[in-house]
Amino acid sequence: MSFLIVGASVAGTRTAIALRQRGFAGHIALLESEEHWPYDKPPLSKDLLADGPDPDVPRLLTPELAAELDLDVRLGVRATGLDPARRVLVTHTGEEFSYERMVIATGAHARALPVPSGLAGVHTLRTLDDATALREALAGRPRVAVVGAGFIGAEFASAARGRGLDVTLIEALEVPMSQVLGDEVGREISSIHTLHGAGLVTGARVERFLGSEQVEGVVLADGTEVPADVVVVGVGAVPNTHWLADSGLPIDGGVHCGDRFEVDGFPSIFAIGDLALRRHPLLGVTARIEHWTNAGEQADAVAAIVTGAEPPSPQLPYVWSDQYGARIQLVGRPSLGELAHREGSIAEGRFRAVYTDENHKPIAQVSVNDARAVAAFRKNHRRGGSLVDLVGEQTPAR
Asked: Could you tell me whether strands 217-220 and 350-356 are parallel, antiparallel, or unpaired per DSSP bridges?
């Protein structure tokens, strides 16, 4: 049996490695549209933007490891079409790759604003090349505007403030992250920006950019102008499914797949990572989970399924974000529950919020600078513990 893995970020690369670790001996081809050997993406919005010497880029796979594992790695190869009937993938050069089984792990790309740009100085942050361009831009000590105060925008703002730059975040929601955390916790978490000297404009829609060739600022719908020499747009991500448009695969909102990651109607094709749309076994909802840890877990699960082993137990979604020297950790999906407990504050340097379901069982948690709280929540969730078991007899959230 042969495997064709499309996309060599964490999901695709870890699938290839896990297949070998679990004893798969067939041919494995790993296609990657970028020219770089697979690298880890979390540092792109953190370490790679920090002031100081150029940092090393953490690699997910090296030529030496690829040779050791007998992986056929093809860089700079962009998939443009798929014919499932013939089991053939077509690339931008017209080259065809046949497969017996395939893993689709092409991830997602940065969502664009519905605003004309084409100006120098307007950036997104999704790839190593993006981070390299931004690192060079920040060295000129520009005024910075960040459109979107989610984790990517927040981490970039933190890196820019760490260089002492003038930073303004522009957020469409009245409360940043409220769609994920709710108003109360979203307001608390986003206070980290103003505490560290960044400007924060909420309830704001970008109307247009200022400048003829180089961006000079951002004009908001109410007429406010935010001066900027560098603008970073971080308003979410779109699944990389365009190359599957004529394939017949179900790709509305992501690649639809079942419990075992097989694409609906196409049992020889698996989908994992940011673009996989499936029912989460612990959350009970159908969703794409765009987290680094989720990609790795799904890769190992597919490798186990293919080799006839028992897949690892599913885990609650987990994501972390490093901002202004603080680590924010989120377990579960807060939007599926109600805020039931909070303690501490961003200003104090430690914070925790717990969300419960309709049966008053903890189902999600947000914590800041508290690794023990994360471990405690996971343990409590596994054994079906109560809120009291987790936090004790304390005053509930307002």
From this structure: unpaired
How far is it, in rounded angstroms, from Cα 244 to Cα 246?
A: 6
120 by DSSP, 3-state: which?
strand
Per-residue pLDDT at 116 = 84
**Three-class SS of residue 383?**
coil
Q: What is the CA radius of gyration of the chain?
A: 22
Q: Looking up tokens 């927040």, which residue turns up?
A: 154
Whether residue 228 sits in one domain with residue 122: yes
Which domain CATH number covers 154? 3.50.50.60
- Closest C-alpha to 295, from 325, 264, 317, 266: 317
Residue 356 sits in a domain whose CATH number is 3.30.390.30
Contacts of 86 (CB under 8 A, 6+ apart): 98
Q: How long is the chain?
A: 398
Mark whether 15 and 121 lie in a shared domain: no
Mean pLDDT for the stretch of residues 158-184? 97
pLDDT of residue 259: 94
Sign of CA dihedral 8, 11, 16, 21: positive
Going by DSSP bridges, is the β-strand pair 206-210/217-220 parallel, antiparallel, or unpaired? antiparallel
Give the end-to-end CA distance of the chain in Å, rounded to a whole number. 57
Biggest alpha carbon–alpha carbon distance for the chain: 65
Domains held by the chain: number: 3
Q: Structure tokens of 130?
A: 């993006």
Give residue-wise pLDDT tens across range 172-229. 999 999 999 999 999 999 999 999 999 999 999 999 999 999 999 999 999 999 999 9
Q: Per-residue pLDDT tens for 359-390? A: 999 999 999 999 999 999 999 999 999 999 99
